[in-house]
């Protein structure tokens, strides 16, 4: 009898502990048709290997990359929580894995610990520069974002870092900041830091971010978005490690389920070639809260690219 009571107590305690934990499977399915003239896969100018109308998945002219991920969180009590996030890219063309970092979990592989004092995160993750730009960028950091493709993510060429240690402050009336750091043994002998400061409260979103690698050049970006009624305006200034710098200006208008966005960038300095004016026109129609169709045209460094697709979030 005593053993039965003890077993029931253990089961009850285990159930209570499990009730404090949760694991979520999530993902994105995004594909369409389009034409990408800006390099093969949309990353390198001057290569017209993909200059044909074809199926698009994880390309320059899809809204985003298809992915599947799992994330979990455990309530440790006293306001303290622990969690993880693993995420893998997926090519809807043939079902192959698209690991942004070369591995299966190339999009995310990290562990975090957080509380009222903020959050520490360790592993492969989106860097602070990305979140700085995402605060004000009009397309939600789409693959065809004219700002990201011209200047990177607040001047950072990549949105993710390996082996990153980061600390993010709690939200303080709309203000937050994050500092990421990579030790030199984890980055080819060159330590790297990345930082942002964000204010997002009501109709105003402001993001400032900067990054630098040892023996490298400073990159930074600052942007502002102001939303009013059914409209939003955004402007920014970015310096991509003194190789390319300039500004952006754009706006979006919402008409019920349909959203129209126009965004443009202009170089004030470009060591890669002549100064460019790039622009994007995007239309999105929401079929539900999780699914929308989109059409976009992107003029990027002298090339014309376009796509038509559908995205479903789950």
From TrEMBL:
<dbReference type="InterPro" id="IPR050298">
    <property type="entry name" value="Gram-neg_bact_OMP"/>
</dbReference>
<protein>
    <submittedName>
        <fullName>Porin</fullName>
    </submittedName>
</protein>
<dbReference type="Pfam" id="PF13609">
    <property type="entry name" value="Porin_4"/>
</dbReference>
<feature type="domain" description="Porin">
    <location>
        <begin position="7"/>
        <end position="302"/>
    </location>
</feature>
<feature type="signal peptide">
    <location>
        <begin position="1"/>
        <end position="19"/>
    </location>
</feature>
<keyword id="KW-0813">Transport</keyword>
<dbReference type="InterPro" id="IPR033900">
    <property type="entry name" value="Gram_neg_porin_domain"/>
</dbReference>
<dbReference type="InterPro" id="IPR002299">
    <property type="entry name" value="Porin_Neis"/>
</dbReference>
<keyword id="KW-0472">Membrane</keyword>
<keyword id="KW-0406">Ion transport</keyword>
<comment type="subunit">
    <text>Homotrimer.</text>
</comment>
<keyword id="KW-0626">Porin</keyword>
<dbReference type="InterPro" id="IPR023614">
    <property type="entry name" value="Porin_dom_sf"/>
</dbReference>
<keyword id="KW-1134">Transmembrane beta strand</keyword>
<keyword id="KW-0812">Transmembrane</keyword>
<keyword id="KW-0732">Signal</keyword>
<keyword id="KW-0998">Cell outer membrane</keyword>
